[in-house]
Specification:
CATH superfamily of the largest domain in chain A: Bira Bifunctional Protein, Domain 2
CATH architecture of the largest domain in chain A: 2-Layer Sandwich
Structural class of chain A: alpha+beta
Distance between the termini of chain A: 60 Å
CATH topology of the largest domain in chain A: BirA Bifunctional Protein, domain 2
Number of helices of chain A: 20
Number of domains of chain A: 4
Shape of chain A: globular
Largest sheet of chain A: 8 strands, mixed
Number of strands of chain A: 34
Strand order of the largest sheet of chain A: 17-21-22-29-26-25-23-24
Strand content of chain A: 25-35%
Helix content of chain A: 25-40%
CATH class of the largest domain in chain A: Alpha Beta
Largest interface: A-B, 54 and 54 residues
Oligomer: homodimer
């Protein structure tokens, strides 16, 4: 008999060799139907795999991130099975799960795949799914595996095999399809009830443009039709709200080949949004006793050796500028610069917590294939700050940062969010992570405690910490339910010591501060990309580049229009007049297209009565108002940063 | 007889071969006594040199920049004569005039010069000046010149001679001293009435650290004692107001070896000043219908080839970062980035003038020897904007920019200023300047016309234009009379065409805009350096990092102090409490040292009467005030950006 411990603390005895699925069945058949995989001693396994010793067990369903991941990975295998059935002789490279869905790279021997093919593959996949074939795992020796793929003539899997260790190799088979795979997989294909292949693209083998171009097919699957329908609807809405499309239509930003990929030029309209966001951040941070600093965008190599960015982060940095025997790097993060400001003066416990804030611009050399509109760029304007504090102050400071996040979420109408606590991997100490095993465990526990005590929803993720400490990534969902990873809040126990930062504590002894790195609004680039989708370009008045447009019905009313404009402008409102000789209908349509929150139509009647006909974006005519009343209304909406409802 | 034309338009006839000095004497002996040199056909000559053909003539006195320059160059010769008399065998390298004063580099054969030596040299110089020896020019063949210095064993002058062309070589002799020199010089040593040798430093021969270290002696001279006294007083005051000293004392900025030379880290106090200046600029520019943009700090090589920065400006740029076959450069100017924003959308004459503004950060690789505190740095935050306009709009736009300068001067109490119109040199077209001779003349004339019509004081300088057009540098004088070159206002007829910028004009045809580059507040670095000296660190309230300090006489009054603080903070005032257990006298002294404008002393009486004892920086106790009255007073001072008087 073996002892199985469950997440709720319960411990039960089972037959040695029992599978997670059988355990699930022993609890309830309903539960068993939902099980996709199981976490055994922290590792995700096939639900059918035998457990042969005492273990902790967590049953994994669609509701878990690992459940979706396994589901989509198994769906990639299902797609491969369908493709092989339709196009015999096809060879496969890799087929991973993505954040949302999956893809498989394949060599179709020169065949061009079309949208029509996707429909056929989808049909075949549905057919195969209905057969409810189990995913069967088989350990295999390296020699046998090589022989299998040599007989099949599959150079891609042979290439993959060359990198694997004998004894660690497994095949998975469902129906007529067998793949080299580490797993895990869902129990059987029948769980895949709704299938959508979304796109085809080319992808160089191993991402190297000197290699052959393979065909990459993307898809997404769900355990029921309703979720697929909702997802397709969301995709369609997301397409309409695509920040690249809106960014161009609303003159928010542009890019240019002579500047460089991933380097955003912010047009006047985008700059207004940037400045409003900075104003909000400055007000919020000033109220929380932050101090602002300004630092250069470059520094000498020695700074980044001290910080550990060289070598830990080198791959993401632009190459150095070498001059007079010195190497200068563009900064990829602001922290080392802020540490230098901390150490520029003697610090006492009375000066702490010291909170240094800067909208610092950082440069990261993302691979060109990964660049995407504003979401993945090479120049990042970060809402950055570093909080230097003692251990005693840590919990309070960390909690205050979390509360700042919640305050911002409220302003932007972000209802759904989750904090992702990213931890280190002990196996990678000294490589990916600073080699301080005890401090890792201590600070991870401190952060976990704050999150639990403050009732913040969070999940834990292994092996995704920063190199200097654990971090919290904040995931938020836009109004149409799309997920964005946005802000960050990190604890750093390492850099303080690396930079020899010290303050004199109450006992008059030198002490190294803990450092909190935080960026609640993330970067302008990603946050404005998110906001464009979230608001579909219909920004609340305080953020709208143009807040009010005055539409005189004819030139006769220009004097009045100018007087209204002057009044609004004096009150700090961004306002323009449409002075074209166009019909009022066209003026309204054009202004709607630019998503201007308020339109003021002015004709004979309005002038006579010192009134305005007020149209609200998306709501149409809202009646007439006295000029002063309208000014008060719009100023109130701006000053209180009200959401459009 | 020859015809001589004077600046006032008069033309007179003189004997062929007459000297400028003789012409001056023929006008008046008083004038002749003041003549230091003469500008003949635009070139500065010795006043004693014979004029042998019709010419334009401008007599040069101490009041002219060229007069001071000649005076100081002659003073360098006088110093060399004194040094040679005192230390026979000394060898000289070069001895130029500076913006203020002169230096001479010399090889003393291993002798260390001391401050005591300077006194002796000064004494000797005074003695030699009284002899009133004339500076006598003698043309000499290269062979004879080489023979002279070979006999003297002077390898430095021989090195200089090797670069000169026969027929173009002259010696100057005054008293017992003869030097290889192109001239010109003042008539005789007697004009030098007041002498001050200011410092000694080491200087590598030809600025190359592999070469021998020479001794450089700096000095300054004047035609009368009063001007020297005023100058010495100004130097002493400048020393007290040294922006590097104040910058450290007031925690304005710091530098760090690991960041790099010339790269400023702005501390919280400096950042407050930066943000106040940016706020002022944004308000001013918004009122003038500027639009703000934000652009990256790097761009690809191709951008700078188009702009002409490569090769015209390459020496001042950081070297490239090379990656994936592409070279990226740090931007040395914002203009090309702004041009890309101009060209990102179709532009019509209705969109013009388009004024794009950005506090852009630029990077220039100044030689390390030239770096100096905030005045000469490698990272520059520029109050930049580019105005794209048609030729018809040019005069109005250019005048509006000039008016903006004057508005700023008033706010900062800058009473003395002059605009320096820098023109091109026709001989350097295609090398230092874009090769467009006609456009140079046309735009220079446009700018001159605006300056004359608007009654702005200005001087013209040859061969100092930007490579793309004429520019105006603004020279201002600080409160203690020191001169700073600060802001810039440039016309650009070249880049519009290079970038193929176009707008559709009223005739529906494409037209290239003129571009005005302007930076009225210059860079944060230099302007804050200037302000530190100008105000001696005693900033007006609106600029002061800390505006009010509350000094409770004892802990008993802390509640009241906190209430006053809350009230001031709510009104937007930067306020702190000195809560140390120190005597009130010490609290006042420490706060005075930090140049905080207002100190509020709180004791028994103040609490009882809801009052404050108000001390004003530099004025001491100004009596008691009710709390609300004081809040109103300080808010008014801030909002109206009042100067401290």
């Amino acid at each position: 008999m073996i002892q199985i411990s469950f997440p709720d603390g319960a411990v039960r005895e089972y037959q040695d060799g029992i599978s997670s699925m059988d355990i699930a069945k022993s609890i309830s058949e309903g539960l068993a139907r939902k099980v996709l995989a199981a976490k055994v001693n922290g590792q995700v396994w096939d639900a059918s795999r035998a457990i042969t010793a005492d273990a902790t067990l967590q049953l994994i369903t669609w509701d878990d991130a690992e459940g979706k991941n396994t589901f989509w990975h198994s769906s990639a295998h299902l797609m491969a099975e369908a493709v092989e059935a339709l196009y015999p002789g096809v060879k496969f490279w890799v087929g991973p799960a993505l954040d949302r869905g999956f893809y498989y790279d394949m060599d179709l021997g020169g065949r061009q795949m079309t949208d029509e093919d996707l429909i056929q593959i989808e049909k075949k996949m549905n057919e195969l799914a209905k057969q409810n074939n189990p995913y069967i795992r088989k350990g295999i020796s390296k020699q046998d595996a090589i022989q299998y793929f040599e007989e099949k003539g599959d150079e891609y899997k042979l290439d993959l095999l060359s990198g694997l260790t004998d004894g660690d190799i497994s095949f998975y088979t469902q129906g007529a399809f067998t793949d080299l795979c580490r797993g895990p997989h869902i129990p059987a294909t029948g769980a895949i009830k709704a299938i959508k292949l979304t796109s085809i693209s080319g992808a160089y083998w191993k991402g190297d443009e000197k290699n052959k171009m393979l065909t990459r097919v993307y898809g997404v699957t769900f355990p029921n039709k309703q979720e697929l329908d909702a997802y397709v609807l969301m995709l369609e809405e997301a397409k309409k709200r695509d920040h690249r499309k809106l960014g161009k239509e609303l003159s928010i930003y542009t890019m240019d080949d002579d500047i460089g990929q991933g380097l955003v030029l912010w047009m006047p309209n985008g700059t207004i949004i940037i400045e409003e966001l900075e104003k909000l951040a400055k007000e919020t941070e000033e109220a929380a006793d932050y101090k602002r600093v300004v630092t250069p965008h470059i520094a000498k190599e020695s700074l980044y050796i001290t910080s550990g960015h060289l070598p830990y982060y080198q791959d993401s940095m632009y190459p150095p500028m070498e001059l007079d025997g010195t190497k200068y790097y563009l900064k990829a993060m602001n922290c080392p610069h802020h540490h230098k400001i901390f150490s520029a003066e003697l610090r006492s416990y009375k000066d702490l917590p010291l909170r240094l804030a800067e909208y610092g611009t950082c440069y990261r050399y993302e691979q060109s294939g990964e660049l995407f509109g504003l979401m993945r760029v090479r120049c990042l304007h970060m809402n950055d700050a570093h909080i230097y504090c003692s251990k005693e102050d840590f919990a309070q400071e960390f909690r205050a940062v979390n509360e700042m996040y919640l305050k911002y979420f409220k302003i932007f109408g972000i209802d759904k969010y989750v904090m992702r606590l990213s931890l280190h991997d002990p196996a990678k100490l000294g490589k990916k992570y600073i080699d301080e095993p005890e401090l890792w465990i201590e600070t991870e526990e401190m952060v976990r405690k704050v999150l639990i005590e403050s009732g913040t929803p969070f999940v834990e993720v292994q092996d995704e910490g920063a190199f200097y400490g654990p971090k919290i990534d904040v995931q938020i969902w836009s109004a149409i339910g799309r997920e964005f990873t946005l802000a960050t809040n990190q604890v750093d126990f390492a850099q303080g010591r690396r930079f020899k930062l010290e303050f004199t504590n109450k006992d008059n002894s030198p002490e190294t501060p803990l450092i909190i790195h935080r960026a609640p609004l993330g970067t302008h680039e990603r946050f404005i990309g998110f906001l464009l989708e979230h608001y579909a370009g219909k920004f609340p008045v305080w953020l709208a580049p143009l807040q009010v447009k005055i539409l005189p019905i004819s030139d006769k009313f220009m004097d009045y229009a100018l007087a209204v404009k002057a009044k609004l402008r004096k009150a700090g409102v961004r306002v323009e007049i449409d002075d074209r000789s166009e019909k009022i209908g066209k003026k309204i349509r054009d202004t709607e297209l630019m998503r201007v929150p308020y339109m003021l139509v002015i004709g004979e009647k309005e002038v006579a009565e010192n009134q305005l006909s007020v149209r609200r974006q998306g709501k149409g005519d809202t009646g007439t108002q006295l000029v002063d009343a309208f000014v008060d209304l719009v100023v109130d909406e701006i000053e209180n940063r009200k959401s459009a409802e």
